[in-house]
Amino acid sequence: MRSGELAALAGVTVRTLRHYHQLGILDEPERAANGYREYDVHDLVRVLRIRRLADLGLGLEAIPGVLDDTGDGHAVVLEQLDTELAAQVARLEEQRAVIAALRRDGASPDLPPELARQWHALVEAGQPRRLAELDRDQILILVQLGGARAVSMVARLYAQVEDPGQRAAYLELGARFERLTSETATAEVDRLVADTTSFLGRMVADLGDEELDLDAGEALLDAHSRDLLNPTQRAVLGRIQAALAR
């Protein structure tokens, strides 16, 4: 039989047969006079055995040892496979638990689950969408660069605005920042810088001496916000950052 017939009988594709040949788990038959490879029923059985093992979850690279094992090595392979599958089940159960929590809270799935609920709560409370998206994007950068420590710090910052009074003040500052344009009066800009610095200064102070060493991360965060904010907002943000640094 030719490769197409073998593939159809075995329930695989011709491309899969070629892959098996490349891996060395299925011998390539000699070509007949017409130039086509001719397979026989023994090749069919070999492919069916490979498929069965693959369906169990065995990696293709491990299959030759099982196919050619005439002793009791199968027990060891099955024990290893069962251990791997148990770990996969545990990971899937953990993923389902995270998904259930995200669905329950109506939270964004593209944020770390530890922060998604708190971010969504601010959006629901009225945080301007554009600022919420800016927060989300910068959180992703922070977490990527700072890992679990960054997640912990952001979660602690978010926790400080869970109090209704604190949240209202935070959202009001955000709304004022969102309204900034080149037409905003200098006095209003100065008041916003002072009010925001005071508010955020208290939040940062509550973190104690904990800091993140982000190296090039600060440049990435600055570049990201620079692309999304207008000149007045960028200037205000720079003044706030400088004041907090002092």
CA-CA gap between termini: 80 Å
Shape: elongated
Biggest sheet details: none
List how many beta strands DSSP finds.
0
Structural class by sheet pairing and helices: mainly alpha
Report low-confidence residues grouped into runs of 5 or more: none
Q: Output the radius of gyration.
A: 30 Å
Helical content stands at over 70%
**Number of helical segments?**
11
Overall domain count: 3
* Average residue pLDDT: 86
Strand content: under 5%
N-to-C order of helices and strands: HHHHHHHHHHH
Keywords: DNA-binding
Pfam family, one: MerR_1
Protein name: DNA-binding transcriptional regulator, MerR family
InterPro entries: DNA-bd_dom_put_sf, MerR-type_HTH_dom, MerR_fam
Give an overview in words:
This protein has three domains: 3-68, Orthogonal Bundle (Multidrug-efflux Transporter Regulator, Chain: A, Domain 2); 70-105; 106-245, no CATH class. The chain is an all-alpha fold and 246 residues long. The model has no long low-confidence stretch (mean pLDDT 86). The chain contains eleven helices and no strands. GO terms for molecular function: DNA binding; DNA-binding transcription factor activity. Keywords: DNA-binding. InterPro entries: DNA-bd_dom_put_sf (IPR009061), MerR-type_HTH_dom (IPR000551), MerR_fam (IPR047057). This is DNA-binding transcriptional regulator, MerR family.
Quick gist of this model?
Keywords: DNA-binding. The protein has 246 residues and is mainly α.
Summarize the topology.
Layout: H1 3-10, H2 14-23, H3 41-56, H4 63-67, H5 73-105, H6 113-125, H7 129-159, H8 164-178, H9 186-205, H10 217-228, H11 231-245
Helix pairs in contact: 1-3, 5-6, 6-7, 7-10, 8-9, 9-11
